[in-house]
Structure prediction request, 412 residues.
Amino acid sequence: MSAAEIHSERANAPPRRKSCEACKVAKRRCDLAWPACFRCARRNLVCVYPGRQPPSLDMETPSLPISPPENLFSPSYAEVQCTTDFNFLPSTVEPGVLELPDPEKDILDLLAQCPPIQPPAQLLAFQEPSTAVIRTRSSMPISEIVTTRLQFGIDVLKQAPRMMVLENQTPWCHQQLYKDGMPRSMQDALACCALYMARNEINTPVILSSFKTRIDDLLASPPPSTPIEALAYTQSLILYQIMRLFEGDIYARVSAEPLIPILETAGFNLLNYVHFPAPEPDTDSFPPMDAVMQSWSEWVYQESARRTALFTFYLIQIYRLITGDNNLSCDGRLGLIHSWYLSAHLWSAQTAFDFAVAWNEHQHFLICNGDFVGALQSAQPADVDLFGRMLLSTVLGIDQAKAWLYSRGAIL
Prediction:
């Protein structure tokens, strides 16, 4: 090719395709797909490219399927995702602009000071399942929602690091989950929990620096490749988030914001190993003790994984609500087709024999998609463990949960 031809080709090069308007406003990378980019299709946004007519508003949004991997546990996948678009004003953390909070302030005041931070594009590369987003909005002020529905749950999760150190458990992590060995990710998180309990005004900066080092190591490590590693990875991220979000230091909470999409991705990845059981018809027959005892170790893992996955999205939604997310959407069940066992007797069993006895002698309830109606008709306060009380107070409201327990001779 002659020099003249090269010059002519460069001079008449086709115009460079530009990002769609939605990605441009959000300052996010656009994949330039037509008629709608992946980001707009996933969020049900109208995708408009400069110089092109927008697709019809009546056009059906392209389906974004995800192919579930083959695995041992026959997992159920998310059907409807509670989504949040990170279309925030660009922000930078400027010392002196953010007021250091008083430790006595309400959690709403603490988190409301956190400016939203744009998460890196690569952190949101996980492809969620196709969703039919159902938008629901409450007319109640955020402060009232926190006071009437979330405060009990927030108080519980603030105690999680202490529980993990002293009791080797949380409401979503069974006490015997790591009896055969704890993955490195959880070992580091447990060490940070112990440091967190010992913090004071003098050592807090050093402890927070240690948190950053451990978190950086966790994010730089290879992706979890086994069920127990995937569960430990997600649980460790939860603990780090709790300690950062509810630490009195404003910069600790600001640094927790970029981990939200990472935690969300970890929650979705954990679903690959989770089996959500379907309701079974009532029967008067009991399974053999030996069969129930043999299933205990698997039940401990699966119930911990079910609760961890559910709590992951519960924590994310609490954070997004309190920080004033203007594009928060939810279908009332955290966007998941899920189920878990409401039974303090099963959850507190520490041996296979105790588990088998609890399974055959005590009633247990399968809570599907956040529906407590059937359980509330038959359950007693002794059946409801801390995880159940946390979600029950969120679904019913704290006063209604107190009333249900009080009518049966118990307190929240």
About this structure: The radius of gyration is 24 Å. Residues 9-15, 53-108, 110-136 have pLDDT under 50 and may be disordered.
